[in-house]
Amino acid sequence: MATSLPTPATTLPETDLTSPADSAFAKSLALGANFVRWLLMALNLSCLDAPLVAVTWQAFAADVFQIQLSGSRVALLALAIWCAYAGDRWLDGFRLTSKSASPRHRFARRFRIEMAVVLFLGIAAALVIAGRELSGGIAFSSWLLAGTALVFIAGTFTSPTLFRARLPRELIVGSLVAAAVCLFPFEAPSESLFPKMVFAASIALLFATNGLVIARSEHPRDLLLGEASAATRWPRVMEKLRPFLWIAMATSATISLAAGFALSSAAPSVVLAILAIAFAGLLWVDRSKIATDLKPVAADLALLAPWLMLFYEL
Fold first, then answer.
1. What are phi and psi of 241, to 5 degrees?
2. What pTM was estimated for this model as a whole?
3. How far is Cα of residue 172 from the mean position of the Cα atoms in its chain?
């Protein structure tokens, strides 16, 4: 008896269960993420993240100590910080090879001439503003601070092993930036210097922690390429740096509370809250899986915590 062969199973065509709305939403998220990444990289490559942070903390210091700052002095700080950071990267562009350079240094190498022109214009503008606005003791302090920063930048270029690996570079840079931020808000005389010194020390420690988070994110590349940095001198310390970040946050909080007796009743809690938010942001950046190229600007954005108070008051 003849038997019939089994009928082969019918294969149904695969169907896309994703609705058009879900697909459009996913594409929008991808475009948004790419735009944010491009914006962050542009902010970092143009060296605008550093002056943005400096001007933010200058405004915060002026608000805490109830000082009115002129637009020209805000512009002078922004120009000075930008010229310092851009000049440091411009010089590093001559020193670093294409393999050891980070994206921001490769950008400085590629647009070396254009960056030199903008640097010249920025320095000229800063000198004009300083000549018109500053006089007396504040002028002397400003030129002394600028000269110290210039010597340090030149030293990192001529003796990178000493200035980048052996000296506490992050602490020095943090102290210089904190001094520049507090220079004009602290210009007015006051009965006690204690709260001002404590405020300056707190943000210097915050800025130094910012530098350490960035150095920690870049230390694998520094070790691989033998770049002179804290990572190559103290690799184990850099790998296990997170406890220091907690210590820095606790220390900053302690010295901020110590200033509470000299500041107004609301100021200590506000300063402490802003510092806590900024340190928490740095700790999150250190623990996160953000791309290495984006961690420097992400660490700088964590320092924009004073915007919370400034926007609230507006």
1. -90, -20
2. 0.81
3. 15
